[in-house]
Prior knowledge:
CATH architecture of the largest domain: 2-Layer Sandwich
Number of domains: 3
Oligomer: single chain
Low-confidence stretches: none
CATH topology of the largest domain: Endonuclease, Chain A
CATH superfamily of the largest domain: Endonuclease Chain A
Number of helices: 19
Radius of gyration: 23 Å
Helix content: 40-55%
Amino acid sequence: MRKVINLxxxxxxxxxxxxxxxxxxxxxxVLVFSADWYYLHxxxxxxxxxxxxYIISHDENPMFKLIWVVFLLILPLFGVLFYFYSRxxxxxxxxxxxxxxxxxLREKEMTKIKSVYATDYLKHQKYLTNLNYPxxxxxxxxxxxxxxxxxxxxxxxxxxxxxxxxMEYFIITLSKMWDEILKVLIxxxxxxxxxxxxxxxxxxxxxxxxxxxxxxSKLGFMVKRFNPMKLHFNYVMNFRDHRKIxxxxxxxxxxxxxxxxxxxxxxxxVFGHWNDAGIMIKGEAVWGFTSMFLENWAFxxxxxxxxxxxxxHPYKVPNESVYIPFGDIPTDKNLTAKSIYMHLxxxxxxxxxxxxxxxxxxxxxxxxxxxxAQSGVKVYIIVPKIPDKKLxxxxxxxxxxxxVHQNVFVYKYTPGFIHSKMIICDKKVAMIGSSNLDFRxxxxxxxxxxxxxxxxxxxxxxxxxxxxxxxxxxxxxxxLKKRSFIYRIIQAILKGFSPLI
Length: 501
């Protein structure tokens, strides 16, 4: 009974009911005006054609354009109504303005920093610094090859905090992992350490009680739910905060694929063994993550200024390697993570190592990977054997088929689910962070990543990758042929809608 009550009172269940009511209202609207169907249909054709012309002329990914034009021209009434419904899920004019303002404040502050470059991969570095994501040296890092290792290092670092702790996650789950972290946070707060926690309301909706943010506030923490779910017309719920950032005293920072939950430390088995990876950095580059957190905090709280001077405590660890923390936000058209993926793939000469829990590629990324493989670069991609989202997995398989036929080596992680998001090229340069290789992550969400060329850390990343490869099974053309005809048809249909999945 308790499970039934929890299900019925869950915010996602409530949102689902509201969406069903909206669909019912739409059906009622069509029935009421069915007597004037000719005029309704004609009007929708005209409106759909005008919207299609607008979409074609708009600067957007061709896959998005194609889907909308198909909807609008083949199913004009449904397409027009769905277009106006779904496009209202864009950030409101007010919210977009606040996000742009926060971004501009961070960028203005970052222009004060003189970037330091390595001679190799200068194009990558210049691209990021031109977007006001500075290149830092005097930083060291530790690659975290599992959630278990990350939890140990995170707790150790949290216990050393003296000034502030910033935490930003897509998902926080009531779990043993969170209990261990919360215990330390409470101790630190009592010692006078300032603690700010930000989590995505949609991402954590089924993981936390409804008013959990109030509970955390009562403990003395500053808490913010990103883009909180409220009663409003649209519930498509894109533009989520998918970042994973922890910053401590502007000295230590963590990022990677890990959210907070027991599946990430394998205390809870949900999709077999959970394989994840991340990184801890110490030194000057931490300021990049601190400033990104402050930017999103200012946006979420509609602040007109950022508190840079309060939190910019200089800290150096002598090292000549280059680190560039950078982010993605949906209100600009930079597509920063996608662009870095493209730079890395196009500049690779020998090997490309990629881990990807989801593989839903746009045309540019797919073409770049195929071209690299056709040019003699050995391209390896590891995806899960056990999926967490079956429909998404089916779509990923359809993209895998294209890649395999062009001599890209795609492997399934046999023990379970791989959630790490990273790319290593020529065993010399890498990117690691929160960005998945799918439309939603690269185009619609707030993300964060780290570009680095530190050879000691990259050596550890390569070792992790090759160990994971040894636990994985290569997907062959013969294996792909075994899919049934019906399965292939479903895949083809889902692939057509892949930008919306």
